[in-house]
Amino acid sequence: MVRLGLSEITHNARTLVVVLIALSVALVFSACGPRAGETGGLDVTIVSISPEPAAVGDAEITLQIRDMAGNLVSDATIQVEGTMTHAGMQPVIVATEARGNGTYVTEDFRFTMGGDWVIIVRATFANGRTAEQRIDLKGVQGEMDMKSDKGKEGN
Amino acid sequence: MAVPRTQPSTQRDLLNLPVIGSFLRWKHARTSMQAVLLAVSALILYDGFWGPQLAPKNLAGVLPWVHWRGLVVLALLIAGNIFCMACPFMLPRRLAKKLLPANRRWPKVIRNKWLALGVLLVFFWAYEAFDLWASPWLTAWVALTYFVAAFAIDGIFRGAAFCKYVCPIGQFHFVHGMVSPLEVKVRQPDLCGSCPTKDCIKGRYAQRPEPDVLRHSRETNAAQDSPSLSALSWSAKSHPHPDPLPQGRGSPPSLGEGIGVPGKSLDATRGNSNSEPGIRHSRASGNPSSAGRVGQEPAPTTSESSHRESKQSSIKEPKQAERDIAIPAGLQLVQTGCELWLFQERKVGNMDCTFCLDCIQACPYDNVGIQLRAPTSEFRKLDQLHSGVGALAQRIDLAALVYVLVFAAFVNAFGMVAPVYALEQWLAGQLGVTSEPVVLGVLFIVGLVALPFVLVTAAAWSSRALSGSRETLAATATRFSFALIPIGFGMWLAHYGFHFLIGALTAIPVTQSFLADFGVILLGAPQWELAAIVPDSWLVPLELLLLELGMLVSLTVGYRIARKQHGSMARAIRALLPWAVIIVLLFFTGAWMMTQPMEMRGIILG
Ligand code: SF4
Ligand code: SF4
Ligand SMILES: [Cu+2]
Predict the structure, then answer these.
(1) How far, in whole angstroms, is CA B320 from its chain's centroid?
(2) What is the mean pLDDT of residues B395-413?
């Protein structure tokens, strides 16, 4: 039985081309650093979500926003996106109303299903700069939890 | 060659269509499709490993779970196994075939679907246990594992061992491809009978110039009376299976013989199949030089004697079609034949066919097409010997795969509705464990193994009792497993179709944001509000419709299977009854799930 010798490989120009492509793909990969995706530059605290605990249905989220220096930001346009940890779901994207003192309240936000949500807060500052922060919001109650919670103490 | 080309086919054939046809006939059609998907896979790997770890914002979270899964089931419904045709894992694998020996025979004990079934079970469990859908990073690891596995396995073993015996995705396609409307099939069966070369299975060879280095060493070697390098080199280089022992030789059907006759199909010498365990073969007989090896792993001249012949560089012309064709030295493989060991002349249906088009490219008479067929026609041929597969009605391993896939359709969908969390909590309490993987492991063993086993055994037992059939329990369960494919497929379609319909447009903002991170601004800021392509209100009715269709087709197929086995209508209905109960139960289970509130979370038990 004869195995493929090195001389045979090098004789096959097509193989060489394929090897080169594979190597260059590997190179490109190792050259690339992580992509940003999360822009940062914002310090967001969820002050409250009503009703509490978060559950399927209409909700109002109150946020407090600071810049990275710790100063309250009151003059930015804030958009809130609620999305699931599962891809391909319709996100809930709403505007907010500024209440002064770095506080913003969502308008017409709605949890469309139970489960693990991610709240993405996007700020557009007066000077046009944008920043973003993500906050995990696990275990938004679904209809079943809400039923079984009746008669139980809230946790 | 004297054999005429085929007449323009009267069958409806994809290859006869204006644009698609000429594209598919193009030599590099498959490679170009694979290249596109390979590029997409590279993006998925990159984003999965180095992109934002939030599934809806990452290509690895979106493209595989929303788009690819949805498009795969839709393609199976309206066409066939298009994903395997364009499978990106095949490109590195082709490299492996060139760089590595790829000459081992796949171990006989796993020359069946059991291994793939195991892999599939592990995958379904891991998908929920580690929330693969929520982790781009893990998704990328799964994809990378695929590439490496296909490369390694097919670099070690002959033919398309990975596709046929390992790849869980491939098994999904093979099983559900049974209801697809397209099939890679011979146009004029008679022509195959008189075909002297059988290129569709053996591959096509052509003269090639002998490289100087080889000629030189051949001359040197000849002087030393050692084996000629050039005579051997073809078998190492231009033939995919240099092992001198062809696999499964010894079931030589004479060429031109019809496809196995139902009822007589136990005699493997009449049809042929590869050497799958679980299929009875007569291995003892066998004239190695007969063309009987056609349709098993192709190994045209790899017997010792033909080696000797080719060493003498004698170009052996076939005296008759039944003679094996020797591939003399200096011939180079220019087109592989079917690497899944399906011989066109006796190939039946879509089982194990990756739609790779190799047979279409290889056949010198243009006698293979991609033909339109009745989507359920394959279920009438369960007893017929399928080349490279055997008789489906005797493949217990295949039946087990079918049952697991059918029940997995429901378990997988159950994983995303609210009641599953209550069930998990309850089970965790009963078992006294807090580890989600363990709880899910138990759930999956019950849902995908124990429950199907009990239901199927009960159904097979009552089917036999009611109809007075003398077939064994296992044989009955195997035969009727195929009737469940349509309802399972209906559920997969409903589930994956749902994700695709409500999330198809999410690819746009995710791509926008991906590009933006590289400084390319496409159509402004990412439009995260883009998602669904149909109104919400359509979804449940559409899902129900698909499931209903699945149920109806399952009942019809089940009836046909029973009728074929039992003849009389009354007996057939009695034999079908228990299976019909399972089919209807599955339908109501699926319909109930569709009306449950959706919920998606990686739960914390305790
Ligand atoms: S069976 Fe082969 S072609 Fe199909 S998905 Fe698996 S690796 Fe790809
Ligand atoms: S070569 Fe084999 S797997 Fe490929 S399309 Fe033809 S029959 Fe199917
Ligand atoms: Cu789902």
Answers:
(1) 35
(2) 96
Instruction: Give me the residues paired with residue A98 across strands.
Output: A104
Cα–ligand 1 centroid distance for B121 (angstroms): 17
Which atom of ligand 1 approaches the CA of B356 most closely? 3
Provide the residue type at A65 as one letter: I
**Cα B361 to Cα B336: distance, rounded to the nearest angstrom:** 9
Token pair in block for residue B130? 């580690």
Q: Which residues pair with A141 in a beta bridge?
A: A55
Look over chain B and give the mean of its residue pLDDT values, rounded to a whole number: 80
Angle at B596 between CA B595 and CA B601, to 5 degrees: 145
Question: Confidence band (pLDDT; 50, 70, 90) for B61?
Answer: very high
pLDDT band at B297; cut points 50, 70, 90: very low
Terminal Cα distance for chain A, rounded: 71
Residues B72-93, mean pLDDT to the nearest whole number: 94
Question: Which residue among B237, B243, B597 sits closest to A113, beta carbon to beta carbon?
Answer: B597
Contact A85 B602 (CB under 8 A): yes
Spatial separation of the C-alpha atoms in residues B165 and B173, rounded to whole Å: 13
Q: At the fourth CATH level, which superfamily is domain A43-142?
A: Immunoglobulins (2.60.40.10)
SS3 A66: strand
Residue with tokens 């589930």: B495
Lowest mean pLDDT among A6-10, A144-148, B14-18: A6-10
Q: Indicate whether residue B443 lines ligand 1 (CB < 6 A).
A: no
Contact state of B601 with A139 under an 8 Å Cβ cutoff: yes
Rounded Cα distance between B526 and B510, Å, is 7
* Predicted confidence (pLDDT) at residue A31 exceeds the cutoff of 70: no
Helix (H, G, I), strand (E, B) or coil at B500: helix
Q: Which two tokens stand for residue B306?
A: 């033909």
Which of B15, B24, B162, B357 to mutate to test ligand 2, by most ligand atoms within 8 A of the CB atom?
A: B357
Note the ipTM here. 0.78
Å from CA of B170 to ligand 3 middle:
20
| Torsion on CA atoms B109, B240, B295, B486, rounded to nearest 10 | 70
What are the pocket residues of ligand 2 if the criterion is a CB atom closer than 6 Å to any ligand atom?
B 184, 338, 340, 342, 347, 353-359
Interchain proximity A85–B213, CB inside 8 Å: no
Burial class of A2 by CB neighbour count within 10 A (0 to 12, 13 to 18, 19+): middle
Q: What token pair was written down for B514? A: 């991906």
Task: Provide the β-strand partners of residue B436.
Answer: none
Q: State the pLDDT at residue B313.
A: 32
CA distance B368 to B542: 36
SS3 labels along B282-324: CCCCCCCCEHHHECECCCCCCCHHHHHHHHCCCCCCCCCCCEC
Which residue's CA is minimally distant from atom 5 of ligand 2?
B355
Q: What CA–CA distance (Å, rounded) separates B166 from B389? A: 15
* Percent helix, strand and coil across chain B, each to the nearest 5: 60, 5, 35
Residue B239 reports pLDDT greater than 90:
no
